[in-house]
Specification:
Layout lengths: L1 H6 L9 H10 L11 H16 L3
């Protein structure tokens, strides 16, 4: 199995820090930036607000 790992052409590891920054910049930073799932977004917003009020 270890030999198979060495022979892999592609891995899931991100070695390039520039690539990691690009991927990070593609992700939404706020719930409002997510497209669709309005009901789920609203529920998450309620949960997050409640947790902040409890200082969790």
């Amino acid at each position: 199995m270890a030999d198979a790992d060495k022979d892999r052409l592609v891995s899931g590891d991100v070695d390039d820090s520039n690539e990691a920054q690009i991927e990070k910049s593609l992700r939404p930073r706020m719930l409002a930036q997510y497209i669709g799932q309005d009901r789920v977004k609203h529920q998450l917003e309620v949960y997050i607000t409640a947790a902040k009020q409890r200082e969790e």
